[in-house]
C-alpha cells in the first residue's frame, strides 16, 4: 500500500460515509416525520377537545378581564362585560 492508495481509500471511505449518513437520515426523516406529525396532530386535537370540554364545564371566561364565571352566566361577575355564550340555549 503506497501513500496514494491510502489517500484514495480514505477519500472513498469518507465519501461513502457521507453518502450513507445522508441516505440514512433521509430515510429516517421520510419514515419518521409523518408519524411525528400525526402524533403531534392527534395530541393537539386531544388537548383542544379536552380544553373545550373543560371550558364548557367550568363556565365562561370573560374575554375582557379573564375572570371565570359560572356556566350559563351572561355577564361577567368581575367587570360586567357581556360573556360569549358557549352553550346555545
Ligand atoms: Zn370581566
Can you describe this structure?
The chain is rod-shaped. The longest helix has 56 residues, at 3-58. It has 89 residues and is mostly helical. It is built from one helix and no strands. 63% of the residues lie in helices and 0% in strands. The model has no long low-confidence stretch (mean pLDDT 84). The chain has one helix spanning 3-58. The chain has two domains: 1-58; 59-89. Zinc ion binds at residues 62, 64-65, 67, 76, 78-79, 81. Zinc ion (ZN) is lined by residues 62, 64-65, 67, 76, 78-79, 81.
What's the arrangement of secondary structure elements?
Elements: H1 3-58
The structure holds zinc ion (ZN).
Number of domains: 2
Structural class: mainly alpha
Low-confidence stretches: none
Q: Radius of gyration from the CA trace? A: 29 Å
How many strand elements?
0
Principal-axis shape:
rod-shaped
Mean residue pLDDT: 84
SSE ordering = H
Query: What composes the largest sheet?
Result: none
- Helix % is 55-70%
SS summary, helix count: 1
End-to-end separation = 88 Å
Strand content: under 5%
- Can you list the ligands bound to this structure? zinc ion
